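Protocol step 6 of 9: fold each sequence in the batch and record its C-alpha cells directly after the sequence line. For illustration, a two-sequence batch is reproduced in full.

Sequence one:
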Amino acid sequence: MTGVTTLRTRLRDHTGELHARLDAGLPLMRDDVTPAAYTTFLTRMLAWLQPVEQTLSNRLPATDLQVPFVERAGWLTDDLTVLGVPLPERAPARCLPVLESPSHAVGCWYVIEGAALGGQVLSRRLRTQLGVTPERGGRYLAGSGTATPARWRDVCGALERYDGPPDDVLDGARRSFESLHAWLL
C-alpha cells in the first residue's frame, strides 16, 4: 500500500536518533573493549532489564501480539554467574521507563526485541575480541541464535497487527530508549 506508514516504520523513525546515540555510547562497540567493560554492561543491563521484564509480564498484551514474551534477564544472570561477577541490585524505579499502559509496554517490547537482534552483532564481535561464547558468559547476547532474525520478523508482524494507540507505543519506545541510555551510559 502506497502512502501507508506502518507502526514499525514509525517506531524506527521516531526512535532512530535515540537508538543511534545509545549504540554510539556503548563501550562494547569499541575496538578496545575490555572484559571489565563487558561485565559492567552485563551488570547494568541486568539491573535494568529484570524489573522492566516484570512490568512487561504484567502489562504486555501478549494475546493481542500472538508472539510469546521471552524473558532474558535469566540469561544475564547466567552470564554473570559463569564470569564470577556478583549479581547487582535492581535499578531504582526512577531509572526505569514509565510504562502506564499496554501500548507503552508494546513500545518497550519493541526496544527489547530490537536489542536482542542487535545482540547478534555484539555476540560475534565479542567472540572475536574477548573470547565470549554463549557457554562462556555470552548467553544474553547470543539470544536465540540463528532463530533470532525469524523472531524479529514475528515481532514486526505483531506490531503491524497491534491495534492499540500508536502514539502510546511510540511514547513507550522513546521512554525505554531514554531510560536505557541514562542507565547504561
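Sequence two, same batch, same settings:
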Amino acid sequence: MEATPVDIDIEEFETEFTNIEGVVNVHDFHVWLLGEGKLAMTAHIFTNTDAHTVLRKVTEVCREYEVYHSTVQVEIIDNPEHPHYVDCKHELH
C-alpha cells in the first residue's frame, strides 16, 4: 500500500492534465494506493485562466482514472507581481 499503482500509466495521466485548456504546467504530481482499490492523487497546476474551471476539469480527469481522493493546488502562472502568485520553487518535489 501507499505505492504507485502499476496498472495506471502515470505519464499518460499527467499528460491528460497538460492537455486541459489553460494548464501551462503540472508539477509535484503523485498517485498512490491508499488501500485496495482506493487511489489518491496530488498535483500542483499552473494556469493562465480561471482556476475554478481548471480545477473542475482536472477533477473530471481524476474520475476517469477512478481517483476519487485528489488534492490539487492551482497556481496562477509565473507572475510574481500577481496578487495570488505562489512561489513553489524548491527541491522538495
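Proceed to step 7 once all outputs are recorded. Observation for sequence two: The chain has a mean pLDDT of 86.
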